[in-house]
Each structure stands twice: as C-alpha cells, then as structure tokens.
Specification:
The structure is a single chain. This protein is mainly alpha-helical. The protein has 2 domains: 1-48, Orthogonal Bundle (Arc Repressor Mutant, subunit A); 68-184. The protein contains 11 helices and no strands. The chain is globular.
C-alpha cells in the first residue's frame, strides 16, 4: 500500500510524463491517475483539483532546477545539464508559455529569496569587472535562461539549419562552466 506522499509523487510524475507529449487541456484526471496506477479520486483527495496538481508539478520542477549544487555560485552549467537530461521540462514550460499560463510560469519560477541568491554572483561579477551599464542584473539572467530553454527547444532546427557539430552540447556546457567560474570570481 502506497503512502499519501508516494501517491502524490506518483500523480505529479504521471502528469509530467503526460505533458511531455500533450497539452494540459488534452489530459484528463482519469488519464493522470491511470498513468500513476491509482484511482482517479485520489487526484481530488490529495490535490483538490487538477489545477492544484498542475501547480504542485510546476513547483516540484522549479525546486529541482533552482536548487543547483549546494555551495555552487554559478548555475549556468548545472541548468544546462538539467535541461539536457530533462527535456520534458523545456516542453512543459514552452506549452505553458504558448497557452498563456502565467500562473504556471510563476509557480515554476524561483522564490524571491532563491532568485536573489542566483542573481548575487552576477551583481558581484558586474561590480568586480567595473561593468556599470545601468542594466539590471535580472535582465542578463533572464536572457540566459531564455537562451538555455531556446537551445533545447530549437535544437532540431539548429542541428538541421545551422550545421551544429556533433559535440555542440559539450561545447556549450564548457562555455557555461567558464561563465560559472568567472561569476564565482575565485
């Protein structure tokens, strides 16, 4: 017999798996429960609604991606590896954007305290290098995140149309490791 927590996790995992291929509107509570191997009534019992389950899934993915490595100052290479290893996250976020689900995008964003921890090394690097362009450090951070998501979302197009080498992912990851090193200022 599964515990309540195991059932919740199974439902969240099932929803994430189903979202890999279909939009939220195309997925029913019964399908989510069937994928999780539980009765559909448990969605309402543990989450209250499909929408609450969706928000719980967005929060879980957000927590995973925004935690990074403990003690690590730069997160660029970690985020790249995470998105490469979890392509479903890119598709889910893209669908949320296309469906104008700003509530889901907010749930998938880091909490304000974590965002400031992520931004701090960028602020320090800008100050250390004398870069004073009047650019809010949240802007280059947001640009970097959108570039990372775009890399994986448009990867097939980039491979076909732009002649990427077979080791393009490794090259990008190497560049991001250098960026993390520069941000750390060690």
């Amino acid at each position: 017999m599964a515990t309540a927590e195991q059932t919740r996790e199974a439902l969240i995992g099932a929803l994430i798996k189903l979202l890999e291929e279909r939009s939220l509107g195309e997925i029913s509570v019964r399908e989510i429960a069937a994928e999780a191997g539980v009765n559909h009534g448990l969605v309402h019992r543990y989450f209250g609604s499909k929408d609450n389950l969706v928000h719980a899934a967005a929060r879980r993915v957000s927590e995973e991606i925004h935690r990074g490595y403990p003690g690590q100052r730069g997160m660029s290479a970690f985020t790249f590896r995470y998105l490469r290893d979890h392509p479903e996250v890119v598709r889910i976020v893209a669908r949320a954007c296309l469906e104008s689900r700003t509530d889901l995008l907010r749930a998938a964003s880091p909490d304000p305290a974590r965002l400031e921890q992520i931004i701090a090394p960028l602020c320090e690097a800008m100050a250390r290098t004398g870069i004073d362009t009047g650019v809010d450090p949240h802007v280059p951070n947001a640009f970097a995140i959108s570039a990372l998501f775009g890399w994986f979302l448009f990867h097939p197009l980039l491979e076909e149309g732009f002649g990427l080498p077979f080791d393009a992912d490794e090259q990008v990851e190497g560049l991001l490791q250098l960026l993390d090193f520069a941000l750390a200022g060690d």
